[in-house]
UniProtKB/TrEMBL annotation:
The lineage of its organism: Bacteria, Bacillati, Actinomycetota, Actinomycetes, Kitasatosporales. It comes from the Bacteria. Pfam families: BPD_transp_1 (PF00528). It comes from Actinacidiphila oryziradicis. The chain crosses the membrane at residues 43-63, 110-133, 145-165, 171-189, 220-242, 278-299. This is ABC transporter permease. Belongs to the binding-protein-dependent transport system permease family.
Length: 308
């Protein structure tokens, strides 16, 4: 009887050891989500629109040759004049060109949305990860503090806090909304950390002698990024709308800064006689908020395995 030789297949990629389960799972999730995103027309459309808005915010001079901060920009003799060949959006009540102000107002709205989203993600993510990992009294105290802020609506809280500032600008508005918005990210991060820290790959890494920091940043953190990316993207549009609402109420961004909310507030009493003064800044605000909400929806659908 001849001896039978059984050859064992070598691992893919030579002798390289397979990646840990958690790392490969997260890499697969992000890769599959990105592949799925590129196939969605809504992602392409909203992405191109947001890219255009970013270009307008960074370089408004590419879209208008005038500056709303230059001398003689506003002329009361042109007050509430309608659209014309040289001024396609017409003039506001102060005789200022609405198109130029709308273009320059894009910068403040984008800055507020991005800055607030970044601050809430960092603060809520760090505190949520700490509470989820440590547990015990640390988790209890931080969770109760987060519940206090979470119970306070962003507009009501913004009214209370912004009333303490004499003047409002993009950074004060962003800071106030970040103070009120971090608990949402905190709750998601805390829940994801608690759900992942008892998984088998974390237990295996701990049994192999991995330090707590390595487990936190190499195994747990990568597996919590997808839901944080989704909620941060969706909140961008919410924060832009909240800034416009605060500015509309007179406690957000204030003159001489430019805000779509301020422009809408100035035009509200004359919308019957001069609807263009209200229509164009309101349309710019609506399109911007819609673009970020659409992007957040499609990112959620792509990165949430339950929705596939």
């Amino acid at each position: 009887m001849s001896e039978q030789i059984i050859e064992r297949p070598s691992p893919v990629g030579g002798d390289k050891a397979p990646e840990p389960e958690g790392k490969s799972r997260e890499a697969s999730l992000l890769r599959d989500g990105w592949i799925d995103l590129r196939k969605r027309p809504m992602f392409i459309g909203s992405g191109l629109l947001i890219l255009l808005l970013l270009v307008v915010a960074v370089a408004p001079g590419l879209f208008t040759s005038r500056s709303p901060f230059s001398d003689g920009f506003c002329d009361l003799s042109n007050s509430l004049n309608g659209p014309s060949a040289g001024h396609i959006f017409g003039y506001d009540v102060q005789g200022c060109d609405i198109y130029t102000r709308t273009v320059w107002g894009t910068r403040n709205s984008i800055i507020v949305g991005v800055a607030t989203s970044v601050m809430t993600t960092l603060v809520g993510g760090i505190i949520g990860m700490l509470a989820g990992l440590r547990g015990g009294w640390v988790d209890g105290i931080v969770s109760r503090i987060a519940e206090i802020f979470y119970a306070l609506p962003i507009l009501v809280g913004g009214l209370l806090i912004m009333s303490m500032f004499q003047t409002g600008n993009v950074w004060t508005v962003s800071l106030v909304m970040a103070v009120l918005g971090w608990p949402q990210v905190f709750r998601i991060m805390r829940g994801e950390v608690i759900a992942n820290k008892y998984n088998d790959y974390v237990t295996a890494a701990r049994a192999l002698g991995a330090s707590s920091n390595r487990i936190a940043f190499r195994h747990i953190l990568p597996n919590t990024l997808a839901p944080i990316i989704v909620i941060s993207t969706m909140n961008l549009g919410v924060y832009i709308a909240a800034e416009a609402a605060l500015s509309y109420l007179g406690i957000g961004i204030q003159a001489p800064n430019i805000s779509w909310g301020l422009m809408i507030s100035d035009a509200q009493d004359r919308w019957l006689t001069a609807p263009h003064a209200l229509l164009f800044p309101a349309a710019a605000l609506s399109i911007t908020v819609l673009a970020f909400i659409m992007l957040g929806d499609v990112v959620r659908d792509a990165f949430d395995p339950k929705l596939r």
